[in-house]
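The material for today's practical consists of a large collection of protein records. An example says more than a description, so a record of this kind follows:
***
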Amino acid sequence: MPEPERLTITPLRGPLARLDSAREDLAKAWLMRLIERVSLDDIGRLPTEQIAAELPAAISDVLHLAAGEGRDRLELPDDVRERAARLADLRQDEEPTAGELTRDVAGIQTVLLEALARDAEEIGASAYATVVTAVTEAVAAVQATAIEALVDQRSREAATVANTDPLTGLANMRHLQTQLRHNLGLVKRYGQPFALLVIDVDGLKRVNDGQGHPAGDRVLVQVGLAVRRTIRAVDTPARIGGDEFCVLAPSQTAEAVRPLAERLASGITGETGGNESDPGVGASIGVVSSPEHGDDAEGLLEAADQAMYRAKAAGEPVALGEAVTNAQSANGGG
């Protein structure tokens, strides 16, 4: 495995060396510029100690990039890229826009050029212009990396929101459908089975009618916790409707996953406070698997729903799908 690329420490000379020796003071000046643009209410939430610790290293990175002859300054070494990416999280509790982050990082250039300007006469016009150009290019490279990190972070957050049920934190139907397609592909290519459990929460309407919808929402959160605690790490739990949950269990048949379904039913009752004086809520669970009960997402969900309703009608916590479900679906459900 190749070693990660690191910044070659080019010996700093002349004005760059003087700037590097003053990096602590320059970092403080940069921090003051950040604070000036933050509202009074938000200043107390700024992680100033962490910022003060990160900024001197960022300034040294810029100076060594500026001094690196023969290097494309847009190609940052891995260690510099990591530090530059952390600049995207300078404000922590806030969510800066790309424009705000651009201004934050541009503060490095401002404090460096202000310091250089004080020595402009000593440096000489030609050398001063060369150093200014090099510093500007180095800051631009660090700035671009910080913005890329911010964009990547926002993209991941958006993907998480798009695939997550906001109340329970479980996957939503969209993500479940993606996982279903993936596992159906494994069935077709390798014959690897998977099980699908549809869970209906019994008694939620009674809670909503008697105690209000906030109480019902708390019950749904408790159900979500019970599901998380019971399933395996490889399973995908999802909330797919108001009071309907689902678990996709890879490498399982319907019969093999029955004990898991029974533990889920028991766990949901226990988590929601079921006892003799307060029955809490219960669960009816339908269990199917592919390829046994179908080889398409819609058919499997329908078969699991039918099994769940059979469990509910029989007063049992769990019912398996019927082996003839596929044939019935192919004939129009007859």
Residues 1-8, 324-334 have pLDDT under 50 and may be disordered. The CA atoms of residues 202 and 282 lie 5 Å apart.
